[in-house]
Amino acid sequence: MNTDPVDYICSAIRSVPDWPKPGITFRDITPVLQDPRSFRVLVDMFVYRYMRQRLDLVAGVDARGFILGSVLAYELNLGFVPVRKKGKLPFETVAEEYTLEYGNATVEMHTDAVRPGQRVVLIDDLIATGGTMMAAIKLLQRLGANVVEAAAIIDLPELGGSKVVRETGLPLYTVCSFAEAALSYKNS
């Protein structure tokens, strides 16, 4: 591959205008996942980032965070913790509500998903307003986990979520950054 890995992944992300409603450009990671080469490059970027860190678990946010998170956990020989939408987990849960543009939502984890002091990296596909990511961080911390870093494939910085996460002092890693008017690639 003669292309920078970041450029390669960012160029594979499909932009779908006016979805799910007019004025919104949806950033679709499906083409990255469908192509074995780009999927491998993406996974390897995260594996190389975390392979020398002392971690105990990877937590992934429902639902696209499960895809990358579970593969990363497997590659790093770590356990995987799902952070699910409300009502999807069968055992005793702890919940965190957060605000969406038009209402509220809730994410949950099993009460025994992490043990106090375990070092966790939290993965999702995208960070927009930061509500889901912050709710997942709070859940993990409430159960005693040490969230080492939050990570996502895509950052939409104009929506403020990456700033919200960084203001907590928690490191945030993203592969691609998409501004509203133009596309820019960066390593965060």
From TrEMBL:
SUPFAM superfamilies, per the entry: PRTase-like
Catalysed conversion reaction: AMP + diphosphate = 5-phospho-alpha-D-ribose 1-diphosphate + adenine
The Phosphoribosyltransferase domain, residue ranges: 53-158
GO molecular function, one term: adenine phosphoribosyltransferase activity
This protein's UniProt keywords: Cytoplasm, Glycosyltransferase, Purine salvage, Transferase
Coiled coil: none
Species, as recorded: Paralcaligenes ureilyticus
Transmembrane segments: none
Keyword Glycosyltransferase in annotation: yes
Pathway of action: Purine metabolism; AMP biosynthesis via salvage pathway; AMP from adenine: step 1/1
Cell location: Cytoplasm
GO biological process terms on file: adenine salvage; AMP salvage; purine ribonucleoside salvage
Class in the EC hierarchy, top level: transferase
Pfam name, any one: Pribosyltran
Subunit-level organization: Homodimer.
Known role: Catalyzes a salvage reaction resulting in the formation of AMP, that is energically less costly than de novo synthesis.
Similarity comment: family membership: Belongs to the purine/pyrimidine phosphoribosyltransferase family.
HAMAP family, per the entry: Aden_phosphoribosyltr (MF_00004)
One Gene Ontology CC term in the entry: cytoplasm
Name of the protein this chain belongs to: Adenine phosphoribosyltransferase
EC number assigned by the record: 2.4.2.7
